[in-house]
Design a protein that fits this description.
Layout (H helix, E strand, L loop, with lengths): L2 H29 L5 E5 L2 E5 L2 E10 L8 E5 L2 E4 L2 E4 L3 E4 L8 E2 L6 E10 L7 E5 L2 E4 L10 H5 L5 E2 L3 E8 L8 H5 L44 E9 L12 H5 L2 H13 L3 E11 L5 H28 L10 H4 L2 E8 L3 H8 L6 H7 L4 H14 L2 H6 L5 E9 L5 H10 L6 H7 L6 H14 L4 H13 L3 H14 L4 H13 L3 H13 L5 H11 L2 H8 L6 H9 L3 H10 L4 H13 L3 H14 L2 H8 L10 H7 L1
Parallel strand pairs: 2-13, 7-8, 15-16
Antiparallel strand pairs: 1-3, 2-3, 3-9, 4-7, 4-11, 5-6, 5-10, 10-13, 11-12, 14-17, 15-17
Helix pairs in contact: 5-6, 12-13, 13-14, 14-15, 15-16, 15-17, 16-17, 17-18, 18-19, 19-20, 20-21, 21-22, 21-23, 22-23, 23-24, 24-26
């Protein structure tokens, strides 16, 4: 073999050796890939506020990472209906240039991978996996490398597949709006608690604390007792208490007409509550004399009124509600003496030019001095005697009657049989006379239909529709109420709850904040919005002192206060959601008995929790437990 051939053969052998060494270097990394360790936080992925966050801390042992190699590291979340790829990181040996984290061959190294991504329900049963691709590159590592780029490199090799974590715990999404809104009770006991009559004792399954009211019912405004009143005033001459119909002010005020109004008022036949006659005198007279004078004026008017009431009793087809004036009607006469209280106001409104001296006299603390000064001023200011003092010499009659009302039984009957016979207030009141939601809905719908321009009927129909699970109908009623009263805080709150029930949290928050600014106390509802956004501490702040409530317990679970959550769930209203969350508390606190007991109750109360529990990563450490499997299968 000549020298040239020998050199050529040596060159080929050298290239082959280098190639073989490069290939063997990657295979060695693949062979020893199990020496690379990962620590994942959290160990089981969890969504908070619709976002899943994960951190992977990798440790590479000494003399593992080939100096000329690079590794494309890109985990992906794998689930039944697809995958969610993570952003990649590039690890590279000491002799590789360009993008990437350098790993020392002699000493090994560490790297950190962090990622966050949007949650979707498909991820509930999933695994976070990684299959790193190692390769050698003679060129500088480019930015933005993709998986197909790494696999397309010469001598690329997949190091192996590693399961990094399970996922995804979605307990934070278990915000209960409908259950709390409708106050749903679902019994999980094997044998339901009974009352003395042998019926299911639903009270035993209600919240032990006060129920939260998420919606606002418009007040009916109906008065079970309404008082009607008719008044009249009779005027007297100076220092006299005899009635004179021809007196200037009696003619001016049409006393005949005033007495007719009083008589017509009583003729209606309404039950008289009381009759009060107040007598007054003008303040220029002596105090003791004026006291007796005012009392006699009241008695004079009482005599006139008593005669009129007696005549009404004798009228044909009389409807008056009394038979004996003395025993059936309480007439009270009161003499008040001089009317010092009205005098200053009368002076202020008068045309008297120099009012200051008169008003200063009225402020005097000496009654005797005031009386004398007023008498002196009458000589200076004749207007006092002509226009100001005469109206103070009077007796006023006040007759108060009970306005007739329908009985509650009549109102209830008409509300469902002939609602057009009831006023709006009566219809709205009728809705409070029954606890049956379907009957309430019928009544409030009638109120909305018969009084279409009133927001209250619309609002209350929506309120009950929500309680009945008719969310779309409720929203329509609330929107009509809003169109009738755009700045009504109760309606704004109720619309916000309707949007929240539909999962439209942005619109819900807008309405709930608006309602809160208008003075509606709806912090609990705003706390629910915080829950949906992942702000559990903010939610707890808004929930305040609310106890025995599912959503309060949920916020406590997510913030790590399992003890407080357990206490709240113990006294919360019982339904599948409550039992299930209690089971989660048991799993998180390693209380297997608490977990198993409540999981059984949850599934008995609501069968949908069987399939959920079978895949729920909250219970992942029990997936191999025979009792757990017997519960979920």
């Amino acid at each position: 073999m000549n020298r040239r051939a020998t050199i050529l053969n040596l060159a080929v052998l050298t290239v082959f050796a280098i190639s073989l060494a490069g290939c063997n270097g990657l295979k060695k990394m693949a062979k020893n890939y199990n020496t690379v360790t990962y620590q994942v936080t959290p160990e089981v992925l969890e969504t908070i506020g619709g976002i899943v966050k994960v951190t992977v801390n990798g440790e590479i042992p000494p003399k593992y990472f080939n100096k000329k190699a690079a590794v494309y590291f890109a985990p992906e979340l794998v689930y039944a209906n697809g995958t969610t790829p993570m952003k990649p990181i590039i690890l590279k040996g000491e002799k590789v240039k360009g993008e990437g984290t350098t790993v020392n061959y002699k000493n090994g190294g560490k790297f950190t991978f962090t990622e966050e991504f949007s949650y979707k329900p498909d991820m509930n049963a999933s695994e976070l996996k990684v299959s790193p691709v190692a390769f050698k590159s003679t060129k500088e590592m480019p930015a933005g490398m993709k998986l197909e780029d790494a696999k397309g490199m010469k001598k690329s090799i997949t190091l192996g597949e590693t399961k990094l974590a399970d996922g995804v715990i979605y307990t934070s999404t278990r915000v209960e709006i409908e259950n709390e809104l409708r106050q749903v009770i679902e019994i999980g006991d094997d044998v339901a608690q009974k009352d003395a009559q042998g019926n299911i004792n639903y009270n035993a399954y209600k919240a032990k604390g006060d129920e939260v009211s998420m919606l606002f019912l418009a007040p009916h405004g109906y008065e079970k007792v309404t008082l009607a009143n008719q008044k009249a005033s009779v005027y007297f001459a100076k220092n006299l208490f005899a009635y004179n119909e021809s007196l200037k002010f009696n003619k001016q005020e049409d006393m005949t007409g005033q007495f007719k109004k009083l008589n017509d008022f009583v003729r209606q036949g309404w039950v008289i509550k009381d009759v009060v006659i107040d007598g007054w005198a003008s303040p220029e007279g002596e105090e003791t004399y004026n006291s007796g004078l005012s009392e006699n004026r009241a008695k004079t008017v009482s005599g006139i009124l008593t005669k009129d009431l007696a005549k009404l009793l004798k009228e044909k087809d009389s409807k008056v509600a009394y038979k004996d004036i003395k025993t059936d009607i309480a007439i009270t006469t009161v003499g008040h003496g001089p009317d010092w209280n009205s005098f200053p106001g009368m002076v202020e409104k008068s045309s008297v030019k120099d009012k200051g001296p008169i008003l200063n006299v009225l402020k005097s603390s000496d009654p005797l001095k005031r009386e004398q000064e007023i008498r002196n001023m009458i000589l200076i200011y004749p207007e006092l005697e002509e226009t100001i003092l005469p109206p103070l010499r009077r007796a006023t009659i006040s007759i108060t009657c009970f306005e007739p009302k329908k009985t509650d039984q009549e109102i209830s009957r008409l509300a469902t049989s002939d609602p057009s016979q009831l006023t709006e207030a009566e219809l709205l009141y009728a809705g409070t006379l029954t606890e049956d939601l379907n009957t309430q809905y019928k009544i409030y719908k009638a109120a909305a239909a018969n009084y279409p321009n009133g927001w209250k009927g619309q609002n209350n129909a929506g309120y009950v529709a929500m309680k009945l699970g008719k969310a779309d109908e409720a929203k329509g009623y609330f929107q009509k109420a809003e169109s009738l009263d755009k700045n009504n805080g109760m309606v704004a709150n109720n619309l916000g709850v309707a949007y929240a029930l539909k999962g439209s949290y942005t619109e819900a928050e807008t309405y709930l904040v608006k309602a809160n600014k208008m003075g509606v106390q709806n912090n609990y509802n705003l706390g629910l919005i915080d829950l949906t956004k992942g702000d559990f501490k903010g939610a707890l702040a808004k929930f305040g002192t609310t106890k025995c409530n599912y959503n309060v317990a949920l916020a406590q679970v997510i913030t790590g206060n399992n003890s407080a959550a357990a206490s709240n769930l113990e006294c919360a209203r019982k339904n599948g959601a409550t039992y299930y969350l209690h089971a989660i508390v048991g799993a998180r606190t390693n209380n297997e008995v608490l977990m198993m007991t409540n999981l059984k109750k949850a599934i008995k109360a609501n069968g949908k929790y069987r399939a959920q529990a079978a895949e729920d990563r909250e219970f992942i450490k029990y997936f191999g437990n025979a009792e757990f499997q017997s519960i979920v299968k």
